[in-house]
Amino acid sequence: QVQLVESGGGLVQSGGPLRLSCAGSDSILNIYDMAWYRQAPGKQRELVARITSVGNTNYADSVKGRFTISRDNAKNTVYLQMNSLKPEDTAVYYCKADVVAQVIPSQYEYTYWGQGTQVTVSS
User: Fold this and answer.
1) Collapsing DSSP states into helix, strand and coil, what is residue 75?
2) What's the rounded Cα separation, in Å, for the pair 47 and 78?
3) Distance in angstroms (rounded) separating the CA atoms of residues 82 and 111
4) Ranges under pLDDT 50 in the chain
5) Taken in order 112, 118, 119, 123, is the CA torsion positive or negative?
6) Which residues contact 96 (CB under 8 A, 6 or more apart)?
7) Using CA atoms, how far apart are residues 57 and 87, in angstroms rounded to an integer?
8) Which residues pair with 82 in a beta bridge?
9) Are 45 and 28 in contact (CB under 8 A)?
10) What is the pLDDT of residue 93?
11) Using only C-alpha atoms, what is the Rg of the chain?
12) Over the stretch 45-70, which tens digit does the pLDDT of each residue have?
């Protein structure tokens, strides 16, 4: 029922910007915390940025000052604005939705994952 569809990935030069979008299919996601994770080849999947249902954010140290997570609840969409990209940012980026300490209707899952979108930073 609930799907997360990611877009915006691609190839970008070092130092450039890129904006990722994660579009949700259901307004139930408004009560979910949303996050971006990434996984590079041979690496564990890691949390990049998180935004709670009330708009609080946190970031991995490696992206602080460069990346910004935001959400537009009216559009059921979460964004990750990435600036000053570095080759080490190259990874598959995944959108995640999860509920923290909330009661939800039984037809909904606690956690949803997007399909992932590839970000490749050259040079």
Assistant:
1) helix
2) 15
3) 24
4) none
5) positive
6) 4, 34, 35, 36, 37, 111, 112, 113, 114
7) 24
8) 18, 67
9) no
10) 98
11) 14
12) 999 999 999 999 999 999 999 999 99
Cβ contacts of 54 within 8 Å, gap of 6 or more: none
Residue 78 bridge partners (DSSP): 22, 71
Residue with tokens 């994660």: 22
**Percent share of the chain, pLDDT over 70:** 100
How does DSSP classify residue 73?
G
* Residue count (the chain): 123
In terms of Cβ atoms closer than 10 Å to its own Cβ (0-12, 13-18, 19+), residue 114 is buried
Q: pLDDT at position 101, please?
A: 86
